[in-house]
Task: structure prediction
Amino acid sequence: MFESGEAVARAFFERWNDGDADGIGALFIEDADFVNVVGLWWRNRRAIRKAHDYGFRRIFQNARLEITELKVRKLTLDIHIIHTVSTLDGQTPLSGGKAGQRIAVISMVTVRGPDGFQIVSCQNTDRVEGADTHVVEESGFRPARYQNG
Result:
């Protein structure tokens, strides 16, 4: 049982680092939403658990996710929004070498229910330093910078 949105958000990171897909799934309400860094949208606890299980087995076996910044916005006593900035190290590369560090902004809407706070919605966004947006051109999809200086 989590007494705040911050507590359930921190539990998400702890369980992620433990590779605990079942534990992550339990943090979410049954019909929760999760949008990952490439826009895949999982629409219930079972799908969120399944996607994390796959990630822990194939992509993030040796990875660590660390919070570097956390902000809580309490909309009411029972609804808290959590924004985090985090670093991800140790992702399994597609081919040889070593994957570099990623920085993400992860946002969660949490709600207090009979069993404490749970996550209603979560969105994970990669931060691309120096970019304002993305653009699709003939060469493909890539980060883009429109500002000068």
User: Anything to note?
Assistant: The chain is about 20% helix and 45% strand. The helical segments are 5-17, 21-26, 45-58. The chain has one domain: 5-127. The first helix runs from residue 5 to 17.
